[in-house]
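To fix ideas, we reproduce below a protein record of this kind.
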Amino acid sequence: MTNSILYVDDEDALLEITKIFLERSGAFSVDTAGSASEALGLIQSHAYSAIVSDYEMPGMNGIEFLKAVRTYSPDLPFIIFTGRGREDVVIEALNSGASYYLQKGGNPKAQFAELIHKLNLAIEKQKTDEQLWLDEQRLEALVDFYEKSILPFHEFMDYAIEEITRITGSQYGYIAFVSENEDCLSIYSWSQQSLKDCRIKEQQKEYPLEETGIWGDAVRTRQVTIVNDFEAAVRNRKKLPEGHVHLTRYLGVPIFDKEKIVILAGAANKKTGYDDADVRQITLLMNGLWEIVKRKNTEDELKAAYGEMEAAYEELLASQDELVSTHHELEASKKRLQVQVDYLLTPTSDVPEPELTELIPPDVLQRIQDAFADACNVASVITDTEGHPITRLSNGCEVCTIIRSTEKGAHNCRISDRTLGKEAHDLMKPTCAACHGIGFIDASAPIVVGGRHIANWFIGQSNPMDVTPDQVAQYAREIGADEDALVAAFNRMETMPLDTFEKILYLLWLVAGQLSTLAYTNLRLAKDALQARSEHPVCRDEGK
């Protein structure tokens, strides 16, 4: 591989002779420039392995030219090749970053042999230094890979893509996963600069290998693809789609797991040509990445398997809970039946009257109450005759929730419920009245089984448009509630005309009557079953 050299001198004869001698060695291709300003223009558009420059030139001398080059290319080999041998010039040249200082004159053959030797030394040193730097960068990247492997997968892969471009000095990069049959490339993502510069509206993610251009060659040939003159390489091949980033150089590296290609890593538009060092860096970096990807896949599989085990365990626990719940329901049914039997077989004075939940299952009561409260937009609860709740409050309003959270407010509510329940029982009809607390309208319908009053069904927490915010604030102070919160909740509360509430109360009376009938029917069924059992021949024999 020849190295590209730029030789700068204001003497045309020396330009020609030096070019001939250097290119005759077979190691170099030489461009020439007659001034430093011309050379600076060439450097902007060409990548050179080294620069050889005269010292004394019009406009800008060799050291001034060297300093200009060092502003944007600190490591490019630079040899001062001049007839001036002053010590101060030599010192300034070396202090300014010249690789070597070589004096013209003497035997031309020996002189150019020395120049070739210095060029080889400078270029080799620069390559060695660059290789060491790249090795350090790769090792840092690998260490960072393992540190960053805890990141979410997409963040980790985005980091890996940016590392490819960084350690190769490339403008663009990408990582693609290769399908099991090696017939499809799945682009994970392009580097950030690629995404920024690309003007393709709808970017594909999946590319059948047969439809890819030069970038698929690395998979087709199963070898590294290096293209340092992209335009020439694609001249007779499939063109890039409109809006694609402009490419000058391209490197595609297939990554193997045993005999299979698993990743295709690509980089593009390095300022200098891609070489074996770039291939080595990407290969080592991507091999490390693939090991981490495999580890992540294994961890994900283990997590999925563990998740399935947890789900199965939760399902088992749910089944167990269901069995326990069924057992509890059977025990509750058995208890209810026993209470009914005892009540039927024993004189009333010797056993307490059965509770409502011993005649109708609690979950049935709750469902009926919830449905009624939701349909009629009222609060609702069923209590025993002393005002103790049998069911959970349905559709409770925010105002009453705040009131009941205070000790005095809850006490007032219980007194109100007990008083209203007793009045409904004494009158044996649905009854409504203002509650003892804030003044909302409450109502109660008695639940009676076989002539015995065993429960009350309350509805309420309805503002008949008579209660004012001032009354609410005053009551909040009386019971020690948050005044602002209670008034704000009251202002959000819907009002209900009294005639509407009375219609709901009539419906409550009808439904409570049906509950009474259902409870009595259950009691009669238990009595009939008991009587049938006692009349059975076997039972009579057992009774003897």
